[in-house]
Amino acid sequence: MDAADIAAGRERWQRRYDAARTRDADFTTLSGNEVDPVYGPPEGAGLPGFERIGWPGEFPYTRGLYPTGYRGRTWTIRQFAGFGNARQTNERYKMILAAGGGGLSVAFDMPTLMGRDSDDAQSLGEVGHCGVAIDSAADMDVLFDGIPLGDVTTSMTISGPAVPIFCMYLVAAERQGADLGKLDGTLQTDIFKEYIAQKEWLFAPEPHLRLIGDLMEYCAAEIPRYKPLSVSGYHIREAGSTAAQELAYTLADGFGYVELGLSRGLDVNTFAPGLSFFFDAHLDFFEEIAKFRAARRIWARRLRDVYGATSEKALWLKFHTQTAGVSLTAQQPVNNVVRTAVEALAAVLGGTNSLHTNALDETLALPTDESAEIALRTQQVLMEEIGVTNVADPLGGSWYVEALTDRIEAEAEEIFTRIQDLGHDGTMTAGILQGIEDGWFTAHIAESAFAYQQALEKGEKRIVGVNVHTSTVAKPLEILRISHEVEREQNRVLAERRAARDTAAVTAALDRMVAAARTDANMIPAMLDAARAEATLGEICDALRGEWGVHREPARF
Ligand SMILES: C[C@H](C(=O)O)C(=O)SCCNC(=O)CCNC(=O)[C@H](O)C(C)(C)COP(=O)(O)OP(=O)(O)OC[C@H]1O[C@@H](n2cnc3c(N)ncnc32)[C@H](O)[C@@H]1OP(=O)(O)O
């Protein structure tokens, strides 16, 4: 790009910056020096390829979505939390909000993630262990007791039974008197990554995609700020993929959901802002920053050029980041605070919109109050102390970071082509579905995981406390243990609620839901009625399993 075009871009950026609101905060360095809100090539200089880098707030958004960067608004501190029953988790949420958390993020226990009630035989021993147990809308009432859902953005991490859980959340909001049309939050819902990596699906892909289509349609029409999908690379990375695979598989899944929305006759400019993303921040500092920058650029370009999006919000890739759980070590676990801080810094330098920092003990158990607080404070140290919010995309223009950004983008593009070639009709969706059926994604992730593990075992890759620097004076940590009493109590309350509700109303609502499943009608209104009648998650999912069957992955060797 020649010098004149770069200068014109800088002026455009300056006009937009001047017109935007910035926080009332100190943006000088620790020594008190003024810094510019963004930096670019030296005045009067041209730079080949600068159109790929650009300015914050404009296409291709490599440098961020907003001309003000974090001067306009800092990222949301969104700590993923849930354990035991709804009452215990509600207390943790209040603690997080009081300590400066900016939004909520619900972690559900394994029975809930699999669409089963707490008293299901398959739930035995799992209730409240890896997250909170939710059986019906009444549990949602308790979960958000004293937390106005109309005012707090709430993310819920659940994909197989995402839609019934969403209905229970809506019922809880309704009972609080919130205006449902104004709710803001995120539901994970991303079923592609379940088949690819996380393995928590209920049905085969087709009925799941039908439900997701219903959800996208419903949210676009009724709850426009709500983001019904958080397309997730986190689980793909944690399963052992490389950074480029994480990026490419996740964005490919995102394109699959765009194709789903289009196939339902929805307007891409209306539904695409409801697609948000979720990435891992792993240990390779610069590679991770490059991954986030490349993600925004690829998404904006493909949404515009392939899927015809024209509105700015439809081109924006917004993402949440979680620091890498797999990078935490059980050995010398206090060192995990350092790893997490570095990973979080990469997310911030990559322009994350929302962030979860892991607690130091998460490789052993769910976090204690104290470790949860350290994790949250880690974000606050980055946000308040180190000057990283003063300048948008401070690493933009670094030869290394730009080269890495270009490389990871090129790798992702190659992978998109391979995925599309797996399908038969040139769509991303056909390629993804074929790749899932063939075990293509799983095999490639396994190869990457194997290569990394070999490198570790040969000592080529080094982890402090694990294969180098193993001596320590550290004492074992106190960890959070979930009592089996939680399960007994949850089941007692569930039995009481079942006995107290209008059984005929529950049965009628479930029948209407199944009837809707047999037509092209949107299933959400019927499912909402079932949730209002206090149908349990297990009952709703079992009714659907009866209709759609269950899905089993073929064994592969
Ligand atoms: C591993 C684990 C497991 O499986 O076990 C998991 O999955 S845990 C998975 C946990 N997942 C999550 O927690 C997902 C979290 N995701 C989200 O919260 C969302 O999808 C998100 C990534 C889009 C972030 O949403 P958010 O509300 O926190 O933040 P936003 O970026 O949307 O910002 C809020 C508002 O401020 C505006 N805003 C932000 N920055 C600026 C700026 N500089 N200038 C002007 N306006 C700005 C935004 O446009 C928006 O307004 P407006 O709305 O008007 O535009």
Automatic annotation (TrEMBL):
Gene3D superfamilies: Methylmalonyl-CoA mutase (3.20.20.240)
Occurrences of domain Methylmalonyl-CoA mutase alpha/beta chain catalytic (ranges): 29-549
Family annotation (InterPro entries): Cbl-dep_enz_cat (IPR016176), MeMalonylCoA_mutase_a/b_cat (IPR006099), MMCoA_mutase_a_cat (IPR006098)
UniProt keyword Cell membrane, yes or no: no
Keywords, comma-separated and alphabetical: Isomerase
GO molecular function: cobalamin binding; methylmalonyl-CoA mutase activity
Membrane-spanning ranges: none
Subunit organization: Heterodimer of an alpha and a beta chain.
NCBIfam families assigned to the protein according to its UniProt record, in alphabetical order: acid_CoA_mut_N
Name of the protein described by the UniProt record: Methylmalonyl-CoA mutase
Natural source organism: Spirilliplanes yamanashiensis
Organism classification: Bacteria, Bacillati, Actinomycetota, Actinomycetes, Micromonosporales
